[in-house]
Structure formats: C-alpha cells, structure tokens
Fold each of these.
Amino acid sequence: MSMRWCLLLAALGAVADGRTHEASSAAAAAGQVRLNQLGFLPGAQKLAVVESDEARAFEVLDARGEVVLRGTTTAPARWEPAARDAAIADLGALAAPGQYRVRVQGLPLSDPFPVDAQAYAALADASLKSFYLIRAGTPLEPAHAGRFARAAGHADDAVEIHASAASPGRPAGTVVSAPAGWYDAGDYNKYVVNSGITTWTLLAAYEHFPAFFRGRELGIPESGNGVPDILDEAWWNLRWMLAMQDPGDGGVYHKLTNLRFDGMVMPEQARERRYLVGRSTAAALDFAAVMAAASRIYAGYEAQFPGQPARMRAAAEAAWRWAQANPDAVYRQPADVHTGAYGDAKLDDEFAWAAAELYLLTGEAAYLDAFQRHARDADVPNWSNVGALGWISLAAHGQRLPAATRASAEKQVGGLAARLAAQSRRSPWRLAMQPADFVWGSSAVALNQGIVLLQGHRLTGERAYLDAAQSQLDYVLGRNPLGVSFVTGHGLRTPMHVHHRPSQADGIAEPVPGLLSGGPNPRQQDLADCKGVAYPSTLPALSWIDHACSYASNETAINWNAPLVYVAAAIQASTPTL
Ligand code: 9MR
Ligand code: 9MR
C-alpha cells in the first residue's frame, strides 16, 4: 500500500473515531500507532506498536506539545495473525504522570494516552462490578446500578429436573430451587462448568493480591459489610452453585437453562421454563475444585459467612466422591436442549484440578495421589482445560507441599510462563499470542496467558514476566491491529454492540460497562446469524465485528471477564512505583 493511501485511510479512521467514539472498521487500517488506550503506570513497561514496513523515528509529545522523548522503532517484522509488518516504539523512559501522544515520522499523531499511578484501578473495579450488573434473580437498584438499574429476572426458585438429570431422589419433573448466580454471557443461562473457572479466577485474584482488594468499594449491595467486595460478589455465584448439587448423592447438575435461547429481551421479559439439565463428571469436579478453594479462602471470613466454609468443604468432598463413582459421565446435549453445551470429554485436567484444591484444603494424602495420577503438563487455562489452575494453586502454596510436589508445581507453572515469555519476546507485537490462539473468546486467551505470565513473576520476581503480562493487557486495551479496546466503556474506541441481551434490550445506547468482548475469531461460526453483516477480514487478529449478531466474536462471558479482573488488578498491584 502506498504511503499516501495509508495516510488517507488513517485520517479517515481518525475522523470516524472522533465523531463516534465507536469501534469502526476504518480504525483497523494499517499504518497507525497502536497503544493501550488506558495508558500506563509510571513504573511500567510502555510500548507502542507501529504498523509499518520500515523502522521510523518517533517523538513523544506532552500535553503542551513539547517533545519529551525521542527514539527510533525496532526494525519491523511480519506478524502472522494480521499478516502485516509491525515495529515497536519503546516509551519506557516516560515516567512523569501526564497526557502524551506519539508522533511517528510519516504517520498521523497517535491517540492521547495517560501515564497515571492509578491507570488500571477503575478498570479493575469496573470489570468486577460488571459481575454485579449481570446477577440473575435480583433487581439492580439505581443506587448500585445507576442508569443500568433493571428489574429482577429468572428467579429460578422453581426449576424442573430434566429427564437427563433425573436421580432416585429427584426424578424427572421434580421442582427445585436454584436462585442467584451470574448469567453466563450474552444469554441468560447458568452453566456449572463455566462458573467453575470463572469463580476460581476471581477467588485467585483475591488470594494472590489480598491487599489490593481489601477496602475497595464497588457500590454493590454488600459494600461496607467487612468483606472484600470481590468475595461478596463471588459468593453471589457460589450460593447458586451450592444449589446445583443433588443432595441425594453429591452429583452436580451440568446447567440451569431454558430449552432454547431467549430472544433479545430484558431479563424480566424472559419467561421460558427453566430446567436442571444433565449431571456430568466435569461439572462435579469443577464444582469440587471451586468449593474446596472457596472453603479455604472464606475461612478467613467465618464471622460473616457462618458455617459456609464447612458447608463448602462437605459439598466439595461429596462431589469428588460422586466423580470417583462416575468418572466418565461426559455431558451429552439432550435432543430437546439447544443452549450452550460446555461439553468436554477429556477429564484428567478436571480430576487433577479438583484433587489439587482438595489436597490444599484437607492435607489428605489420597488427594495428592489422585493429583499425581491425573496431572499433565500445564497449559494456558480455559473452561475446558483447567489443569493449570491446580498447578497454579499448588505453586501459590508451595510452602505447604512435600518438596517434590512443590518442585514440580514450580517447574510446571514457571516453565509455561517461560515459554509464553519467549513467544512474546520473539513476537513483533511482543505478544504471547500465536495464530491458533485467535479462537472464540480470544480476548480471554490473551488474558489467561497474562495470568500465567504473572505466576512466573510471582514465582521468580523477574521483571520480564510482568512486562510480558503488561503486553497482554495492552493488547486487550487497544494495542492491537483493530485499534479497539475490547472492554465496554473503557478506552477511546470500545465495543458498542456486544452480543449481550441486556445491552441490546435496555434502550441505553451504551452497553453495560466493564464487559470484555470475545475478540477476533477467524472461524466466524455466527455467519448464518450475521447475514448482510461483513466481517472485515478472515485474518486471525482482524476477524471481529462490533455487531450484536456476532456471538462468535463480540459476545461477552463471565469466563472472559474474570481474567480481566485478575490481570488489571495484578498489574495495578504488582508494578513497582517509581
Ligand atoms: O445468544 C446465543 C449465544 O449466547 C451463544 O453463544 C450462541 C452460540 O450458541 O447462540 C446465541 O443464540 C443464537 C442461536 O445460537 C441461533 N439463533 C440466534 C440466537 C441469537 O443470536
Ligand atoms: O466460550 C465457548 C466457546 O469456547 C465455544 O467454542 C462456544 C461454542 O460451543 O461456546 C462458548 O460458550 C458460550 C456458551 O456455549 C453459551 N453461552 C455463551 C458462551 C460464550 O459465547
């Protein structure tokens, strides 16, 4: 592409951005300076990416237009996910708080960005607050939800046992109560498997960075009750999860759901009959893992949650026993059920994770044996691959482990972090992400890689891990070839049309804030529902549309938001102050 053409496209992008503050495809034009739109902490690594096929000189201007830093980008290299060349401008020397812009020779001026000691505090709060805003079974009052206040939906106090979930004590058609919890995503169903990794990730954020979360007031109904808001919010979902256990035998229902997805309506207008569907080994083990971790963590708040740590321990043990007796109850979607499946036939990772958390809770050798039988090499976690969560919890409690277990946990977590850091170092965008990482929910792949990198930092103290994690957050917040911050309401160009029922149906132009868009996904599994809406590209990092039809690239989901909470809080808390 000629330079003049690049400049023209870039200028068009800038005009569109200024006028609409929306994510526009013009913003995806090459030849721009890509930056984290929330800026940087003073002590952080600060990188801009310049999409250019030659090294260029750059300057950083302060708010008065004075040049405060000069440099030259690295030599560009091709980044396969976008099939474009990119070079790095290192702005690290910039430390004084203020507003800045980057001027790269021959390119339009960058977006303004701050250097600010609280750069990610509001993001950490908002991404956590978004869980309150998607609570099921409760009205959101204006005092807590502002203009996103709404009536209660889905009381879930009379849900039917589906034939697929029948047990001797609860035959098909039995009516039970399983209220509260969070809506999974753009849809209004509640799935135990996905709740597992989500709730654990929030609990881990608290367990790893307690000082950050103590005393943060989010303005949720429980704020001020002497419990960190993150634990109050997680409890809203744990309450629901506890009701997903069959009291007869400890089995765990796979999901609480309609038979078909609701229309694009507000929660209170969605009145389909609700069912408990399936009982699965994966649900039982994810449940056991989360309840064991929660029992350990809420033990510090016994006074505010009397009896709950013991109840959660008993629930975890019962679910574990059920899974031992039913080790291959793989979820199969019944013919009359059409909502999310969260099906997973590979269960060693679920066994290993549950065993690790139960071992940490009880100290019983049988759990350590089970962990050793099931554990495999750690990999970046996602809802269907949770083995790393066990390794991470073990590594975080190394001092309580037999020496050999501690050594292997540190080797697994540290080794995975080292591999991701090496990928990041080699990447022209300084990202761990590879082309194959751009799957449904790719924004969360970036952040789960960030979580692993942050474990490398926690284990070794090495700065390179923190910097690589910062890069992953930068990607999600705008340093990407689309020039979009994927978090609703946080950034200069953010998703406006997420596939999220309340955001579509509430009559408010802006979507519910603090939600993470799934992100680019070249498989475009939603094409049949996006007729007449064109994805801009099939390239991995460009295959995203800010359109409500696009559940495969622009939905929101609890398991994607939780790693955003973790990484925003961890980077805010871990970056050295100057
Ligand atoms: O809204 C649903 C979303 O939460 C799911 O991720 C997605 C894939 O299962 O399905 C969405 O529902 C669509 C359905 O699959 C097909 N008809 C249109 C529905 C709304 O777009
Ligand atoms: O996040 C899930 C993704 O990994 C799967 O590829 C996809 C299709 O099965 O489903 C995603 O989960 C959706 C769930 O099934 C229903 N609620 C919305 C979730 C996010 O799109």
Amino acid sequence: MTATGAPRVLLVEDDPQLLTMLRILLTEEGYDVDTAADGQRGLHLGLTRDYDVVVLDRGLPAIEGLDLLARLRGKGVVTPTLVLSAQGNPADRVAGLDAGAEDYVGKPFDVDELLARLRALRRRHLDVARSLPLPGGRLELDTRNVLPDNGNPVRLSERECALLATLAARPGHVFSRSQLLGLVFGEAESEVVVDTYVHYLRRKLGRRIVDTVRGRGYQLGNSR
Ligand code: CA
C-alpha cells in the first residue's frame, strides 16, 4: 500500500489502448497504478517495487507474460497475479495457473468481473502471503525457513531458497537445467551449479524434495 493507503497495482500490457483503458479504470477504482508496455520493463518494476497485485498480459514483447511471472516467482516475489490472455482456451488457463498465476481472465473481459476478481485476489492473498506449499510442508519466503508438517524448521541459504521457490511456484512443471540456471543463478555460471544446489536441498530436506526427470531436468518432488 502507499502512504495514502491506496493499493498498488502493476499493470503490464502492450496494447496501448487497452493499457490506457485499464489504467483509467484501476485509478478510478482507487488503485495506485504503475504501467509497463513490455515484459522487460514489467520484470524490472516487479523486482524493484512492492505491489499489492499484478495484472499481466500474456503475449508481451521482450519477455513473454508467463516467463515474466516465473522469473518473479523465482526471485521470491509472490504478489498475487491475474493473467490476461487473448488465448482463452482451457489449456491456456491451465498453463497460466501452472506458471504461478492466481487467476486467469480471457480477453475480451467484462470490466466489473475483472475488478471483482482483483478484489477477491487481494483478500485471499492476505491469508497466504509469502509462503509456498511443498510436499510435506511449506516454504516461508521471508525467513527462508522450510516448515515441515512434522518436524523442526529448516533454514535455507538465499540460493537454496530461490531454487526451491522456483520449483515450488510451478509444481508438476519440469524445468531444464539451463532454464533453472537462467531463472535462479544467472547465465554466467555453469549448469553444474544447478546440480550442486539440488544436492544441497536434498541433503537438508530429504531426497524426495526434488525429483530428477531423466533427460529433461528437475521438478518439485510430488511424493508425500
Ligand atoms: Ca499482448
């Protein structure tokens, strides 16, 4: 929230008319609105400023919407996000929710419904802020603690936490090593660093926290 108590929204949309329309609408609704017209700018704002909610177009120049969202989640940004998409079929909706979106609205959308969904999103988020579910527990992003359903908290390093948060933001999704390298560690390092940190996570949290998918990469463990 801002000093005046207005909720802050980040709006990422490359269609100039739609961007203007949504900015006016959200401002009238009482939001303090920041806008970005491409994925790169959206990512920069999302990483450097605090928002109460993000409205994200899926088809964007520079960085595609779902990729932007995965990168934010990988850096521990858990701001609730509503994805807008012209591709409104059920498979797209699943892809959006898989990428860590809390809600997904197909274009064209009804304005009142969009505003109602944003209000619901912010209400829900207050209850589950900054924590991600894991098999057998959850990850608290503020403290970098894994809280098992039974047992004592386990503290992670910054990079261990970033890797686990990236995997946990998209359970069921298989990440290649090069993808994880880009999302978590930066392209300058070797892919071996990914294997090393998977090893660290398994040593701290048990083998089954991360599954190896032969020939493809890693995913969050799905065993209980
Ligand atoms: Ca677009």
Amino acid sequence: MSPPPEIPPLKRPVTSLWGVGAERAAQLVRLDILAVEDLLLHRPRRYEDRRHFRAIAELTRDEAATARGRIVAQGLKRFRGGTKSVFEFVLDDGTARLHCRWWNLPFLEKYFAVGDEVFVFGKLVETKPRTLDHPETEVIEGGEEGFIHINRIAPIYPLTEGLPQRWLRGLIWRTLGRFESQIVEPKPAPDLKDFPARANAVRMIHFPEELIDVEMARRRLALDEFIALQCEMRLRRTKFEANSRALPCGGDNHLMKPVLAQLGFKLTNAQTSVLREIRADLGGTHPMRRLLQGDVGSGKTVVAACTALMTLESGFNVALMAPTEILAEQHFQNLARGFDPLGLRVQLQTGSRKTVEHREAGIESQSRPAPSTLFIGTHALFASGFDLPRLGLVVIDEQHKFGVAQREQLVRKGNYPHLLVMTATPIPRTLGLTLYGDLDVSVIDEMPAGRGHVKTFVRKADKLPKVWEFIRKKIAAGRQAYVVYPRVEEQDTANDIKAVTREFANVQRSLAPFRAGLLHGRLKGREKEGVMTAFRANQIQVLVATALIEVGLDLPNATVMLIENAERFGLAQLHQLRGRIGRGAHESFCILISSARTDEARERLRVLEETTDGFCISEADLKLRGPGELLGQRQSGLPRFRFGSLTEDLDLIRRARELAAQSPRGVPEKI
Ligand code: ADP
Ligand code: MG
C-alpha cells in the first residue's frame, strides 16, 4: 500500500494540533473551524486594548469599555423558591467599586473567586451603585502565557458554548507561531507596496500592534478572498471555452430587418450598441456568455428578441426563460405577434400551459422543412424530458430571480448554446462583479425617449381615503392601476392570503363601478391568465396583487401604483414594482403607504421619492439590508466572505478582477 499523499500543513485537521482533543474539535466545528487554516482565519469580532483601561470611576452608560480590577466580594442569591437566581461579584480597581451581575446562570459561581483579577467589558446599567449586567469577562492569569492575553491589544473571538475565550486565543497564538511560515502569497499576488504580506496580515488580524493595523490586515485578507473567487470564475470560463465550440448564430438580417421595420419605434443607441456586441459574440469562436444589465423599462425585451432572431435566422432554436408564468405569457403574446407574420414558430411551455403552439401557419413556414422555433417558458421549459434540439441560444430574463447554479444547469442541458442573461435588478457593481464574474457585461444605460414621469410619494395609512379618491380620478380619465400588498410566501399561513382577499373586497367596494381583479401566487395558471387578459384589455381597471407582478409586466396604460405596507419590501424590490408604471407617455404615480411606526423605516422609503436611478437605490439597499436580502434568496449563489465586504470593497474586487485577468489563462496556482 502506498502511503497517503501528504496533507499540506495548513489543510491539516485541528485535531493534529497539540491540546485539541475530540471535545474541543467538536466545539470548533460549530465555528466552522476544521483545518489549521480555518483557525488562522477565524476573525476576531472585536479587540480590547489591554494596555489602557477605563477606571471604574469613569465607566459610563453610553459606551462599552474595558475595566480591570480585583474581586473583593461575590455571592449567589436564589429567589422564587430557587427557580431564579442572580450571581454577583464586586470588582475594585482602586478608583471605585463595580457590581457585575448575571441572572439565572448560577454555575458562574464556580468560575470566579474573591481575589481574582478580572477584565470586564460592558456599559453601566446603573450608576448608584455602578453596575454591569452580563458583562464579558476574562480572569487574568499570569504564568507562562500571560503575555498573550494582557498588556496588548487582545482579540475577542466569536465563541461557542463551552469554549473559553482565553483557551482559543492561546491556541491561535501557538498555531500562528508554528504555521506562520507556511502562509504564502497567492498567485497572482498583489503588489506588496500597497498591501501587507499575507502572513503579516494574518498575524495582524489576531494580534495587531495598533488598532489601525486591523483594517489594513482585513483589506489584505479580503483581497485574497476576492482573488480566489475571481480566479475560480476565470478558471470556470477557461475550461468552458476549451470544451465548447460556438454554434454559428450571427444571422444574416433577413428576419431582423422586417421585425425592426414594424416595431413602431427606433432602437436607442444603447440598444443598438449592445446588439452589435451580441452579434459579434454569436458569430465568434466561443459560445456567448453575456449579462445584459438595464434598469426597468430600458427595453431589454427588444434586445432579447433581436438576439433570438439572429439565431433563428441561422437555423437554430432558441429558448427564452422567464421567472413567472405571467411573464412568460406576456413574452409569448408580444413576441408571437411580431414573429408570426414572418412564419416563425413560437411555443409556450409553462407549468400550466404545455407546448401551446402559436402559429398562423403562413405559407412560408410550411415550405421550410424544419423551421427553427422560439420556445418560451418558465423553468418548466427545461424540466426533464423536454429536450430542445439544435438549441443555439438560451435567454434568461430577470436572471436575479434564478440562482447561479440554476443558470449553469440550464446551459448544460443543451449543447453549449449561446447564453444571454438579463437582469433589471440594478445590481450594485460589487455584487455584479462577484456574482457574474464569469460573464461579459453589457449595459443599457439609456431610457427610450418619450416616457412619462413617475412621481413617488411616501404616505402614512391615514391618507388612504385621499389616495383612493385620487385613484378613482385617474381611472375615470381612462388609466389603470396596480394595488400591491406584501408578498405571500409559500410557507405563510392561509391567513395572509385571506388578508389579500379581504383587501380585495374592500378595493372592489370602494372603486365600484370600476372593476378590480385579484392576482397572487396561489391562483391556478389559468386563473392568473384570465385576470391578466382582462387587465390587458382594460376590462378590469385595477389589479390587486402581491409582489408577483414585480417582474417584467409591461402595460403602458397602467399609470398608478399603490403599495401598502411598503416598509415590508426592500428598496430594490419597490423600485422593480414601481417599474411597472411609467411605461407609456402618461404621467405616472407611485404611492407608498407605510404603516411603520419608526421614522427610520419611513426615511428609508424616502430614497424612492428622491431618485428613480436604480443603481443609487440598489446601493442604498445593499448598505441597509446586505446582499442576501437584496438578492432575495439564499440560493443567490453568493459566496460567504470572512473578511470581504460587498458594501465596502469595490476597489478590492476590481483589483482582484484585474489581477486574475493578468494571470496566465486565469488559472490559480495555489491560494
Ligand atoms: P425592460 O428592460 O424592463 O424589460 P421592456 O423590454 O419591457 O423593458 O420595455 C419597456 C417598454 O419600452 C416596452 O413597452 C417596449 O416596447 C418599449 N421600448 C423598448 N425599446 C424602446 C425604444 N427604443 N423606444 C421606445 N420604446 C421602447
Ligand atoms: Mg423585462
């Protein structure tokens, strides 16, 4: 038997370290620490400057601080028949005395003794006598390892039950000493003129000489995370390109010309230049992998349609995937209208509508042996058993509604077709570069001319009667409206749907004789379709809906949107919702009703009153709610960073991308 291949030192399990037995290892696993490397990258949650202490006499109620003193008295009091308790000790540092209390943790008594020297961290809850409740503490022990914990800036780590701060700090100190020389620069490595060496940064993140070193170290370690990620994405891309050859889908314009001619508008410059990029991709040697970014209403659908036409012209099939049935249906209706006269086949495939063929069986289409087809659908389009032959192009609309894994899976289905993913979530650049690092990016940064303005108002619920009056007036003038209630999630109880239903009855009553329709995710496909058809035809004037309508709907006559409980939506989502109006020439109005009790929540909504720039809004949302929330789902494919911050580190992400691009073929050697 050959000996097992040697494990690189930093990848060794923590159990190989002195002093780490099964019990400690099990605790460390709970902190995601399995290997030596994980331990070295365990990020302190804060630092304590144990070279300077706050005198107990100077502790305040406003600011948490560290004090140091000796326990002069301690005791445990039980009450309520012994079911409740409070443990307390009194600390003296020569300036004053400090009471430290813990409720219902009687076992703490064992950990402290009169005469112990202790660090405590917290802010006062009372001043007479000075009292801390549940402070963080650490008993000061001199001895061999004393210098690790005192007279320095000490790291305070996230812990788990049973794991002492002091023990973990000691372990990390010793592990650093032993393995520091194994920490090498990644390849490609950043310029050490601008950043500390990686090994240095690891030391500084744990045991900084000064507090300002911490941020320098964090940035270096964040950069390394971004480098690793960008290299991985480039590697994926490189592999993909090595294993795939592009189908020739550049087209010859014979379908595109007549479609553009009957469009009724001229493409914007932005649309034209994006199409030029796409045409080059479709005629190139590698399959296209392109992200099309454009704010709501910027006209991505036309670009998708033209891209489809190029492929169809070349004799290949196209699949267009939308995140909801309603949107798939809308694409189907719009595109079929334009494509039918040319004898092109358009098919719809959703969960509730299977392979409906839409064709006016023109003579031309019959004279062709196997006319290429545009398939439109939801993810059902790719459900097992439905294999698309000669698939030249996959277009994914509203990509942010799908996960990255899903995206990959889809494209594998076919024989490496070209891929165009479109997103209206104006993703902040940090996220875009992170999530879509393996894609080329095109941006539509120009709105079609002649759009009506959207005015946005944030109002409290007591203004609702006036708002309804306003909506009636607009409907009387011939316009239509959306009324939106917070989303009904799958796991929600039936009560939530009832709430929507009850509101619906109210709306019906208060708007009679105008008609309202109800739309939410629990309706059957056919029912949704019926409501949408009636709304499109203006047989109903008001659509009462959940956030289901946030993506893609395009009805220029709908010019009013009322969103209740607006505080329950993210800003980016509200921006998407608002994107449903302002699509025609009429002036549009978005009214956000906030029942939030806090001013802060209402302030947040003001961003929408102030700007319609999707990028500003999503940057604000990212700062307020973090990336997971912004993307709306866990499956967003976003990696977890220990040090990197998607709200702060745009410069680092850019730099990592540049570095990765310089490395030969983007293959990371070792990180
Ligand atoms: P989104 O980018 O949000 O998907 P759509 O593709 O739905 O936007 O386009 C919004 C509306 O703008 C549609 O009604 C579409 O017909 C119209 N539109 C698209 N491009 C132009 C243009 N160049 N000039 C005028 N209207 C356009
Ligand atoms: Mg769209």
Amino acid sequence: MERKVALITGVTGQDGSFLSEFLLEKGYEVHGIIRRSSVDFRERIAHLEGKPHFHLHYADMGDSMSLVKLVGIVQPSEIYNLAAQSHVQVSFDSPEFTADVDAVGVLRILEAVRTNHLEQSCKIYQASTSELYGKVEEVPQNENTPFHPYSPYAVAKLYGFWIIKEYREAYNMFCCSGILFNHESERRGETFVTRKITLAAARIAQGKQEKLLLGNLDSLRDWGYAKDYVECMWLILQHETPEDFVIATGVQHSVREFTDLAFRHVGIELRFEGEGINEKGICAKGPEHLIGKTLVEVSKDFYRPTDVVNLWGDPTKAKAKLGWNPAKTSFEQLVELMVKHDMAKVAGEGAAAKVRMNLAEYLEKGVVK
Ligand code: NAP
Ligand code: G4F
C-alpha cells in the first residue's frame, strides 16, 4: 500500500513534534517546514532527523513562493497547519508579524494547495484555538459558542478560522479547524505559564532559583496533554465530512491550582496570602531552609492588556463523532509528568546549560514574559 503523505507546518513546535511521531507510527511519509535559524538545533525533533520517512524543508509562512513550491514538490494528501506565532503576550508586542503568520499564513497555505490543483485530493487541518472565545460569552464553550477574540493573536486566528470555512464552502475543499483548548507537555515552550511553573518549581527545589514571578493567578484554563491532542488532529481529517471540533478535557483549573500542585510534586507546600498584585505563595512545608520564604510573587509585568480568564471546553462532539477520549491524561497526571521531566532536566543542567539558566534569571526578573 502506498504511504500517505503529510506536510506539517510548525514541525519544530510542541504539537508538530508529537504529531510527527504519531504519523510516522501510522506509516506516513512526513514532511516538515523549518525556518532558517542562527542556532541550528531543533530540540523537539532532533530524535526524528535522519529517519527514512521524515523530511525537512526550508519555507516560511510569510513567503508564498516557498509554500507554493513546497506543496508542489511534496504533493501532500494531508496538511497540518500548525505554524504560528503562538504566544498571546508576544502578540501584543508583535501584532503585525502575528497577523501575517497566523492569519494570512493560513490563506497562503490554502492558495498553495489551489495553485497546485490539489484542492480535491489534499485535506487541510487548521490549528485553531479556544482563544477565539476570548472574553467568553458562555461557559463551558462548544462549537456553537459565539467568538469574542481578546488579543491580537486571537483576532489573527479568527481570520484563519473563517478563511478555512470559506474555502470549504466556496471550493468544496476538505479543510477543518480543531478548536483546541490549552494543551501542555514536557515539550511546552518555557514562557507559557505551565512550563514556567514546572521549571521554576524544579529549580527552586534544587536551589537554582529564588522565586517565581507570575501574573494573574485567578485565570482559569482547561489544560490537556499535547500528546493526546495530536491524535485528534488526525481523527478530524479521517472523519467522513470536513467539520470543526472543540478539543478539550472538560475540566477547569486556575493558575494558582497548577502552581500549588506543581510545588507539591517537588516537596513544597505553599500557603497563599494576600490578594491581587499583593498575593504571595509562602513555603509552609518543605526543606527547612525554605520554610517561611516567599517563593511565588505576583508581578504586574505578567498581566496582559486584555486577558482571557475563563476557558472551559465541552468536548461532547469530538467524543461522539470522533470517538476521542478527553480523559486519557488527567490534570494531576499532566502536572506530575511535567514536574518529573523538569526535575531531571534541572538536575542535569551543568555548565553547558548556562544559556537556559540565563533565561530562568530573565523570567525571574520579568525581562522575558
Ligand atoms: P509552538 O510550540 O509555539 O510552535 C509553533 C511552530 O510554528 C514552531 O515550529 C515555529 O517554528 C513555527 N513557526 C512560527 N512562525 C513561523 C513562520 N513564519 N514560518 C514557519 N514556521 C513558523 O506552538 P504549539 O503549542 O505547538 O501550537 C501549535 C499550533 O496550535 C499553533 O498554531 C498554536 O497557535 C495552536 N494552538 C496551540 C494550543 C496549545 O495550547 N499549545 C492551543 C490552541 C491552538 P520555530 O521553531 O522556527 O519558531
Ligand atoms: O500559558 P499561557 O501563556 O497560555 P494562553 O495565553 O492561554 O495561550 C496558549 O493557549 C491558547 C489556547 O487557549 C493557544 F491558542 C495559544 O497558542 C497558547 O498555546 O497563559 C495562560 C494564562 C493566561 O490567562 C495568563 O494571563 O496564564 C496567565 N498567566 C499568569 N501568569 C501567565 C503568567 N501566563 C504566562 N505566559 N506567564 C505568566 O507568568
């Protein structure tokens, strides 16, 4: 049987790396788009490079010509469009770049498929987001909940969602959006809140960091495990009709709860005192030298101009139509696996990891958000 051919944009990212592993396991020929970088080390996919059915190509979501050329060469049967400037806070700092990649980039992919006359043979998955619900109009959120984007990132992603829908209807293309709620892992970027917390908990426990600075501790998210979510991307493209799906666990927790649990996993019990900007997490139980010390502080540097504070997904449709199991990895298991990973990572950090330690110092000082 001929191998299916997948093209993944964003292959070096958290989801791209898990999806590559998943599709290779399923027998796909996997092609990924990479950008030229001055540091030529692709941490998340280093273990896949050199495998016979895994191929990397230079292209950029801002460069139509590179995309048209590549789609023509690869002739994919499935495209997973995961590439994005994916950090919400950064979208306030770089709104135009975010719009170019996250909004117009989607159009470029669709047109690259049409230009190569593949619109009837190539299915497209678009990485859409729960951020579309933004300043939420109902809880929990499902496929019929109105959108109210609340950041430059979300506004750009809203264009991506609608242009996918438009091409589906106008050109009868099999293109769909997965409206994914937050999904995390040991490969999550280090400035997203979950990974920032698990790394800081590990470093504080090992005496390599003094304290953790956070923004809004009351913010609520529906956090799942990224490895479970990439299966859903594939299921969406295997469904008989092109449809959009909400992918979530259906369970909600606050940033404070995530922090509390992560610190428990490194043997530190926190007591939260104060409110808003004055709230602190103080070590109530744990290593002697830390008792009574403030380990978590709130800093206004990590507050956003507009923040999405109540995301909670309803995965009923994905469960019923795709047979996807949203409860495969629980919140507690997710926090545990991330902390375990980061405890080992931090323990192994020697002189060679000095550069990453600098990032931790920046995070502590609020230089990098
Ligand atoms: P990520 O780790 O930040 O990865 C983003 C990927 O996009 C990286 O491979 C990055 O390449 C690539 N990229 C960025 N700009 C590009 C450009 N101009 N040209 C080509 N590639 C570019 O994100 P993720 O967490 O895996 O998320 C994957 C997708 O799902 C994103 O579209 C994100 O917006 C969306 N999403 C994520 C979540 C979540 O909770 N993780 C939830 C909903 C939706 P470099 O490595 O070169 O930077
Ligand atoms: O971890 P976050 O930065 O993720 P956010 O903004 O929810 O975005 C992620 O999930 C989206 C899906 O809903 C994706 F579309 C998007 O690409 C990305 O993957 O922040 C989560 C919450 C926010 O409310 C933020 O204000 O945590 C709050 N928070 C509190 N302190 C913080 C911090 N966020 C970050 N990054 N850093 C903090 O210190």
